[in-house]
Amino acid sequence: MRLSRSLAPVTVAAALVLCAPYDAVSHARVDASAAPFGAECRTRVQGSHVVADCHNPYADTDRVRLHVECARWWDLDTDGAPVEAGPAETVRLTGRCWMEVGRAWVSHEKA
């Protein structure tokens, strides 16, 4: 059986790639010095109030900040002050709108 002319180069190229030595295969680069970072935050919205509890299980201090976007156009959105969550520390962040909360999130920054 004979391969068609258009399929033969593809077959040869695939065979060469599959037969390449292990060292020739590219690998994703991982920065070994980068330690895991970032507190885990759980955000709750109840009416016009927002509460975020952030726990930092890592060795580096995480500076967390609560952002609240209000649903009404005339209601002021707020960006809370940054709070440092040290290693194995839990912090509580609070915010509110006059009426309904549109969305709320927590930002992270290395201290």
Automatic annotation (TrEMBL):
Domain of life according to the entry: Bacteria
Protein name: Uncharacterized protein
The organism of origin for this protein: Streptomyces longwoodensis
